Amino acid sequence: MMVRAALGARPDVDQSPRGARARALAEESVELGRRIGVPTDLVHAQRALAHALLAQEGAAAATAIRAALREAERLIDEIGATSLAPLVLLDRADLARFEGDGARERALREASGLFAELGAPLRVQQIEAQLAAEPATPARRTEVA
Fold first, then answer.
1. Considering the domain boundaries, does residue 95 fall inside one?
2. Which residues of the chain have pLDDT under 50?
């Protein structure tokens, strides 16, 4: 939460001291999570690191962002915290927004399906609204036609 507060509401790349502070907090959270050994906290810390990296460097940090999200997914699988899985997919969709390769829509659709399985209809509605508001990808245009 401190990382999100440090980033503010700006979804774009932020190379200001605020972005650097958010990244430092996220890295500290990951280290603390490893020391304490609470896997769910470490999942959230890895996600926070991905958010901070994305906000500070954008797609230039894609490799580090993917590594943080892979670690979060590994922990989720290890402890069976399936309710956290769609959140990581939303993070992957955020990264894909910068890369523009169609992965965003796939990640959002997969997250929507997992949220539906978890009985979270409001999250499903939010994702469906996002998908409806975004321009169609070539694959989606063929599905619609």
1. yes
2. 1-2, 5, 9-11, 140-145
The predicted-structure confidence for 92-111, as pLDDT tens digits, reads as follows: 999 999 887 789 999 999 99
Hey, what are 85's tokens?
Answer: 């899985």
Q: Per the domain annotation, does 65 fall within a domain? A: yes
SS (H, E, C) 93-145: HHHHHHHCCCHHHHHHHHHHHHHHHHCCHHHHHHHHHHHHHCCCCHHHHHHHC
User: In sequence order, what are the residues at sequence separation of 6 or more whose Cβ sits closer than 8 angstroms to the Cβ of residue 55?
Assistant: 7, 10, 11, 12, 13, 14, 19, 22
Length of the chain: 145
Q: Do the domain assignments include residue 26? A: yes
Name the residue range of residue 101's domain.
Answer: 2-138
Instruction: Provide the domain count of the chain.
Output: 1
State the Cα–Cα distance between residues 111 and 122, nearest whole angstrom.
Answer: 12
